[in-house]
What does this fold into?
Amino acid sequence: MITEKMYEKMAELAVRKGVNVQLGQPLVVSGSIRDAAFVKLVVRKAYEAGAGSVVVKWDDQELTKMHYTYQTKESLAEVPDWMYDREKYEQEKGAAYLRILSDKPGGLKDVDPEKMNAAQQAYYTKMADLMSYRMNNIGQWCILGVPSQEWAEVVFPELDPAEAYEKLGKAIFDVTRVREDNDPVQEWEEHNQELIRHAEQMTEYQFDCLHFTSGLGTDVTVELVKDHVWVGGGCTTSKGVFFIPNMPTEEVFCMPLKTGVNGIVYASKPLNYMGKVIEDFWFKFENGKVVDFDAKKEKEALQKLLEFDEGSSYLGEVALVPYDSPISQSGVLFFNTLYDENAACHLALGRAYPENLKGGTEMSPEELAEHGSNQSMEHEDFMFGTADMSIDGIQKDGTVVPVFRNGNFVF
Ligand code: ZN
Ligand code: ZN
It folds into this structure.
């Protein structure tokens, strides 16, 4: 049973540990009208934690679908100035951003991908110079999920609706480390220490490349940029505020060299991209670029992703997640990247995170590109980790160091 007390703990965790809102700081919360009660709880907890002002941006998946269905492509691609101005204002005020998600996976699957593409392109183009606020961790941001009936029925279609809701709810609270009888803030403290330990160890090795193999057929070598930094757990803003961008998080991640990926990668979980669930897919990489691919379901959506822009057919992230992490152990396929990306080792097509390069958050896009960092308006994670995944780290002098055996860290 998910109790009111657990929701309170979840809201408190989001505000104090997730975005870590500071005294007098503005907070922008995005949430669905279906989660109105929880959003209000979050707003209250944020004020109690000292937030100066809290603004809520409401959304609704059904309305979004109507907009996509009835508006023309041209109309959807028109991003009003006030949208840009509002976000610029928030950023100038040093706002923190908290997003609460509970949407139905695949809820927009009937929408024309051309339209969605056009709207996304236009949005990212308009907002381009505001994206570094989150990408470079200038201000705190956090994404957190809560259960919804619509979501539960996609995850557990075989159960009756009440049971499905209960089961998804339990899974979400469990993997976010919120239980009736624990102190989630304390548990997150310890969990973070472990992630930081792995990240620091990986950074110390400064591997030239990682070689991944799995029983699914994956056999790929991912070269890392020079002076790379593995990151895990939380991040620190340029003002020195520690925050946790993803709740849950189980990954330590790094920056692949844009042109240094070779081999074949078989996905181990479906990918929910722009409302479509892509299944059983693989990519073949040559010098970093996807040169061939296939999918048993929604291949067209995958093609859209690869053709989104020049960088969306190159990798921007390589992330290690132990097979014995709670999400993986829950055995639940959430059909949502926030959760599923934390169930398995993954790669991301699209832009890289500047924080994964020493001094990267201070670099211009041109400087980042010179260091081999991929640039794109997309960043889409897909899972390829398995219970039998092996990873070898190869050092500059050719020394091979086992990193993963049977899906888990060796050290
Ligand atoms: Zn990741
Ligand atoms: Zn990612």
